[in-house]
Each structure stands twice: as structure tokens, then as C-alpha cells.
Amino acid sequence: MTKKGKTIILLLAILLGYSTRLMAQGDSTSLRPTFSLDATTEIQTDCEIAKWVNLLELHATIPISRKFKFDIGTLSFYTNDEEGLLEDMQIFSNLDALNVAFALSTAGFTWQINDRHSLFAGIRRIDEDYFCSDALSTFTNSSCGGFPTLTGNYTMPTYPVSAMGLHYVYDHKNVTFQASLYNGFAHQDLTGRYNVFRVCPKTDGVFALTQVEYRHGDSHYYLGGSLYHGDFTLEGIERITRPSIWTLAEQALSPDLTLLAAYSHAFSDDEVFNHFAGIGLRYVLGRAEFGIFSDFVHYDNLDLDIATDGYEFATELTCKVHLTDWFSIQPVVHIINTDGDGLCVGVLRLNVSL
Predict the structure, then answer these.
(1) How far is the CA of 333 from the CAs of 123, 131, 139, 143, 308, in angstroms?
(2) H or E element: which one contains 134?
(3) Distance CA 139, CA 318 (A)
(4) Is the pLDDT of residue 50 over 80?
(5) Domain locations along the chain
(6) Tell me: the pLDDT tens digits for 221-256?
(7) What is the pLDDT of residues 283-312, one digit of tens each?
């Protein structure tokens, strides 16, 4: 086992022992630790070559008292080919990453202030709190896990990297308000200059997000914004401020049919992704979820001496079947057009959640 893995296991053992002692002293139900495992394997193919990817996520929630708890989570990723199967801008699979073992994805304390307010401090990813609705989670493309005007423009704390930060939640009746403040650059390593514990606003900058969710029956409506302030060179020489906004509507057309409509915009001229828009449908039939999601993104090729405009249209057709409460199978087809070049890829995803 690697040194990284041993450190994480030791930390878990210490906290578990403390939580067990608290259980013996008080309410054993409310102070019981919980553990979860989520394993996903996926085959991707464009009918010429195939790629195999695997993701393992481990998570533990360890109560410290009735108002405080500690969360810790890791992710491990393995693929037989770290190169992308396609040269698409949005990255058709939200699993794709570089090989890594037991990277720390979550580690921090939550203070449940009262029934409405809570505050988290520590290592976290924004996709644990934003862009994670049931409707968006049906789809496997990366843009549904985080709109590209955010995830494509910044090295922000979203899968597979994390960062130190604060996350506040207000939840009352049909309204949820969230606000987050993170170190401006996200990382994976436990040691070295650029580690996941790094807090350095002078060079990394800061990244702030906020979102309001309104619920009406089975419909959900989201409005959010982000602000990055810092220097992309990590030298702290030229600091800039870059705002962006997004909105998402999940309109229930019937108890089983949901219409999705999304839009996001980045206001700075020197960002890669400027506009994103998407529309889709999700239909639930028994243990099966059927979905179609089409989106458009406009981008600037800033690697060239003269910036050039580009665009990409992408459509995902998916069917997720829950064979049991803990096992699902999901065949997917992605149809992509990048600057006039048409691409098509098939995916078969298997998931186990315990």
C-alpha cells in the first residue's frame, strides 16, 4: 500500500475510534459512522478503438457530536489509455481523468448550526454541491457535471481535483441558498508545493460561487454565479477578476417526465469558453431512466497567435437501468460536431453503489 493510502487509513481509524467512544456515551443511532463505496467501470468505443476506464470512490461520515461531523473521501482512477478517445472540447465522458490512487477528494468538518444553516470547512469539490441534481446526474457527459464556462476556464475544485475551502448552506422550505469560497487553483497531491491542502490567495487567487435553488412541486430552478480573482500564471504578478453566471430549469411536465434547459455565460474576453446552452428531456419508467440532452458551446482558440472562434454541438442519448438498489447498467451514445467535424462514440457504463 502507498504512503498516501496508509495516511488516509490511519486518519479514518483515529476518527472512527473517537466516534465509537461517543456512541458508547450517548445516542448510538445519531452518532453512528456511515461508509459508502461507489465503483464505476466504463467501455468507450468509436467503432475503431476501445478504451476502458474505472473509478472507485470511498467515503466516510464520522459524527463527532450532534452538531459536528467529519467527512473524508478518496477517489482512485485507472484507464488503459490516458489519452482522450476523441478530441472534443467538452469531454464526452465525465469519468475521464489521469490514473491516480486514493486521491483525497473530501476531508473536512461540517457544523450543523441549526435546522436551516450549515457550514463546511476543509477539502471539497464543487460538484458535490452544484450541478448534481437527479436530472443532470442521469447524463454521463462532462458538461452536465459542470458547465464548461466554469470547469473549462479554470483549474477549479471539480472532479478529479479538490481544494481547501468553505461551503455554506441555507435550506428552508422550498428554497436552498449555497455559497462557497475556495483556493483559486485545485490540486490532488498530498505533498509538494502544489498540494490539496494549499491555501495561497496571493498566487493562486480565490474562487467564489453562489447559487439559489427554488423548488415548486417536482420542478427545480437554479440561478448561480461565480467569481475568480487572481493570476493564472501562479506568480501573483497580474491579478484579474473574471465573473460568470449560469441558470438551470428542471420543469416537471408530468410526474415521470422532466424538461431541462440550461444557459451559462462567461464575461471575460480572454476565456476559452464564452457561452453554453443546453436542453434535454428525462423520463423515468419504473427502474429505468431515459434521457436526451443536446448542448452548444462557443469557444475561442487562445493558443493561436490570432484568437479564432469555434463551436461544438453535442447530443447524448442514454438509458440507465437500475437492476437492483445497488447495481445499474447504462448504454450511451454521444453524437458530437466540433467545427463541422462529426464524431460518434458509444459507451457502456456499469455502476455499483453500496
Answers:
(1) 34, 21, 11, 15, 29
(2) helix 134-137
(3) 7
(4) yes
(5) 3-353
(6) 999 999 998 876 555 556 788 899 999 999 999 999
(7) 999 999 999 999 999 887 655 444 567 889
Cα 155 to its chain centre, rounded Å, is 13
CA distance 354 to 134: 18
Is pLDDT at 17 greater than 80 in this prediction?
no
Instruction: Supply the DSSP string of 73-96, one letter for each residue.
Output: EEEEEEES--S-SS--SS-S-TT-
Q: Rounded CA gap, 305 and 152, in Å?
A: 20
User: What radius of gyration do the chain's Cα atoms show?
Assistant: 21
Burial class (CB in 10 A: 0-12, 13-18, 19+), 1: exposed
145 and 94 Cβ atoms separated by less than 8 Å:
yes
**Length of the chain as a residue count:** 354
Burial class (CB in 10 A: 0-12, 13-18, 19+), 181: middle
pLDDT over 70 percentage in the chain: 87
- Lowest mean pLDDT segment, chosen from 26-30, 50-54, 209-213, 339-343: 26-30
Taking the C-alpha atoms of residue 13 and residue 335, their distance in angstroms, rounded to an integer, is 46
Q: How many CB atoms lie within 10 A of CB 314?
A: 24
The CATH topology of domain 3-353 is Porin (2.40.160)
Closest CA to 236 of 270, 192, 202, 262: 202
